[in-house]
Amino acid sequence: MDTRGRVLSRILYQADVTDILPIESTFSSVYEAQNEYSKTTIEKSKQFEESILQIQDSGNQSAKSLIERINNSYRPTSNGATDTEPTKVKKVGDDAVAKVHNRQDIVEDGVFVWIETIGTGHALLTVHDSDITMFSYGRYDDIYPNTLGTMGDGVLIKASNEDCKPYLREQIFAKGARVFKITDVNKSDVFNYLNDIWEDSDDYPDSTEGELTLKSGRVINEYSLFENNCTTTIVDALDKSGTKIFEDSILGVELDQSFTIPVSLSDYLKNASLNFDMLVIDVTKEMKMFLDNPNNLKIKKPSKKDIVFGIITNQASFFGSSSSD
Prior knowledge:
The protein has 325 residues and is α+β, with helices and mostly antiparallel strands.
């Protein structure tokens, strides 16, 4: 059973509609859960919608998550058939309470963290509204001497729409990045935090990293692979914007150490995406559908250099964490 099917059944249990979908039911996906629902009678369908309205009126997060999950798939009709075209769901009294959208709608709005773990890995953030804006921090400019590439100019790239989509496609289709939607932050807060940092710098990179770096990058500080990198930048942006997803760790020393490398942040968000609060949602599949893969990019095999750097990064992070305890 995938996360969506599990979460849907758990929310239905909390919504006191277990006569429709009991908590012990097992579904391989949210679609099977909805198919089960489609077999119910018209009377139970009305009871189901009334229950949704009740918990929606209460304003709790579970209700919003349930409605979002259903809206981002298809909705069975009252006669048991399934309708994959967008339709309107109506409450008793014929007032529309929700609109069914396709699965891609969940990624058309919000804040998203992208993480790939080849070699040292990389983490970046996108803010989606009417536009897609990507913020990607890294050592995209000059490398400091005698640092073996672990230190250099820290460049923040800000790019939007067609300027950033090729880079995002490379991350998700060629490097196997996972994408997580962070639901408890205001997208304007996240955007403004990173945009202010970007605009405050008038130091432009002069590297040969590529056109995107030259066009959209700004040198904002000094990059350090083990202390100030893409992962710490993303975590700071989310934390400063008010997310609660790291609260379990902020009382321990491990927080900063745990999230100095992409793989540790990825593991943390994977686990967080299984929680009932749904503050983190794995939307990798939906993002692939949203971006499409016009150039038919394939997953790249890690090079020997990637493997070596991956081992060094993981070991350095481990020893750094141990020495801080």
